[in-house]
Amino acid sequence: MADFSGYIAADELYDGPFCILSIVDNHSFKRLFQRVLEHDATQADVHQFFSDFRDILDTRGLKMHPLEGVSLGFTTDGSELYPSAISTLFPGVAHQSCQFHALANITDAVLYSVAKVRKELALSKPKLARGRPNKASRKLARKATRVQAKIADLFEYRYLFVQRHLTDSEHKTLLRITRGLPNLRTLRSIMDQVYCLFDRRCRTETALHKLAILRRRVQRFTSVGRALQTLFSPALERALTFLDEGGRLRGHDLLPATSNAVERSKSGPSRGHRRYRKMQNSVYRVRTHAAIIDRLALDLCRDMLTATRAPLIRALHLQRAAT
To answer: Taking the model in full, what pTM does it have?
Structure first.
């Protein structure tokens, strides 16, 4: 922990009846602390986990306070397991909910609303008698064809309702497939406002003001508001904390907006939960408390030896390339 940045990502990983709690440095992507539970994590487990981590930092002279030490921020997912423990054990430290998880929950709600509209259109499609339509039923047949084409377009272009940026042609396609469906156009405009909340040119106070306006707008549209209850989650408010911790003058982000370091980091010695999943896939039958702890310990030892092993691996690669 000699190069501990003070910004950490915490998350839990469930593997059958077991739960793995992890803390990773959110800048260097190094795993700092892990614990394996034989049951699903509770707030008491998380509180004890963070308490033990604080004791470890105290033994190294690191104070988890923005005015006394180096730790300035936590990044977690939207789970309600963490806010109480962080506010109690580390008062004054910024707590950021993962921006990716917050947006994923909202986009899932929007896509669910689009699917609901498709089902309603399918129920409104007129029923036709068996065989070729006669002269009296041709009008109903044409209507059924139009409705089915509308359903197919809504399914094929459903990504247009959650895509961050639309080209001119995509915008025209969206207007075409939502003709006669004002609720879907409202959904798309709401998604535009949601993406504006995470504009790095804004401060957290400004984003929270925009969020309050958006929530009032959603409440006015009763047909849309029921599906977008995720907009009223406290986790969405915590997901805007990073806007005040952007480090604009230093040219880099201080408080990361996502918990990518602990889940699926793309660089650094640790690959978080992705590495664990790959290990367990190779020996899927190893599912005991002691075995999981041993495998995590072995993997941490491997990370410690990575720096000393790198020159040897590089020399071997050069020798192989020369031959």
So the answer is: 0.79
